[in-house]
Amino acid sequence: MRRTLVLLGVFLAFVAIFTLSRHPTSATTTTTTTMTSTSSSTTTTKPVGTTCLGSDFKGQFIQGQGAAGTIYASVALTKSTTGSCTVKGWPRLTLQDKLGAKLPVNEVDLPSSGGGLQFSVPQANLAPTLLTLTKGATINFSLAYSQVPTANSVCDNAVTMNVQFSVNGSTVTVTPTYPLQPCDNGRIWVSPFY
User: 87: closest CA among 125, 144, 134, 18?
Assistant: First the structure.
């Protein structure tokens, strides 16, 4: 009888641990990476600040390399205003030609189950994480696109890239050194912010 009760207790403990490990016990805590201009640290706390706005940042396009017609690059965004804000996820991009007309963009958020593309920066290949940013902090994202035209493909010349942290948010304008020429109707593979 005692052995049966012990086995029943172990079984119930296992079920409780399994159930709790699959469901969050508190919706108010999260893992946050705080970045400043000189350091970064990771803690588990309540999120602080509001969602970042593009208008709070200055952007720099970092020209990358190409391999087999695929061009790799990254963008560095530095917070130029006081206060803190948070960001998690992927950037939303808008491309413009030299006359300011919007060009088609077909963003593919990586990492994804269907994407075999890997960025050279290891953080760019990880899932999104919540980042808390203060004045002077810099975050990045990586991107890649094919500049090889196909039969039904258009390869527009984009001279300006506008970056949003959220849909319908304000933008930060980034000007690449050379025009971007994403083929396949503007397909661009994009990493999460890191």
Answer: 134
